[in-house]
# Entry
Amino acid sequence: MSVSAPRPECTGRFTAFTCAFRDILPLSLAVLPWGVLCGTMAIKAGFSPLQAQFFSLLVFAGAAQLSASTMLAGGAGAVTVLGSTFAITSQHLLYSFTIQRHVIAMPLRWRAALAFLLTDELFAVTMRRAEAEGDFDAWHALLAGIIFYAFWNLATLFGILGGQYLAGLDHLGLDFAIVATFVAMTVPAIRDRSMLAAALCSAVVSVASQPWFPDLHVVIGALSGMVTGFALEQTRKAA
Amino acid sequence: MTLWVLILGMALVVYLNRFSFFSRSLHFEPGPRLQSFLHFSTVSVLTAVWVPIVFGLGTDGRLTVNGVYALSALCVAGLALLRVNTLLVVTLGMLCFFAIKHLVDA
# Structure
């Protein structure tokens, strides 16, 4: 399968870019303080400026990077850090599992690129668009992913260069933008009782499991929500 | 030197998590049941990411709530019900958030 042309409402690369930019912008802004913090924390953990930048360029996973820097500063070993990285980013397995059917027929270079760019934020934006358009839009995903990557790495660069002047950035509450965006995306998607049950179950289980599984609570919560919603829907269909 | 190896190792671990199901060797045709299961993934994952930012649980079982976040999230949910576009909801939601935060901090 070749990658389909941009959607009618997004004709031409430029308009496709504008669409992607509009969709990923709130999340790109929300992630800026975390990018800055990632740069600062990496330097504090003993990375050289070049290493700190490549940390964001190659790993491109905020939660995993922040936790690795904290663990390294606390004297943790490489194996522990890698294990925790796997656990923290294991929700990406769920993302690639969900998106698989849309991308599997694409050439390897597309799958490889989209996988590299597949963050929480890109998953959210892409699935929202897939739902609105009725189909997966590969160009939109690629462009949104690249824009988000640029924001993340610029923020890291700022953190590396001037982190010491930006103390308290993480206390400004800018991370509320993540909450705002995700709430704004979830609410319209809850159209029936089984979806509501999935959301409620996911909320309760993720909060309840966080103290015991701080690296895995997102996956545990999400899977519980999916199972609950699915079971309820099957029961209703059978009834 | 070791840090470079660690950076590459982490990059590999994260990439494997992201790429795994995009690889043709793990390919499968999801049946209607699996598709309906996956249909719940977006809402479930997004909820599992944002709710623990607002609500926390101590190991003593005590629930902590970030009041400013919770109130602002309620505003956003209300705005989202109006079915206007997401960027507008998020922008207005952030304005609500800074207004509430300002009132609380004052």
Observations:
- The longest helix of chain B spans residues 86-105.
- The CA atoms of residues 10 and 16 of chain B lie 10 Å apart.
- The beta strands of chain B are 55-57, 63-65.
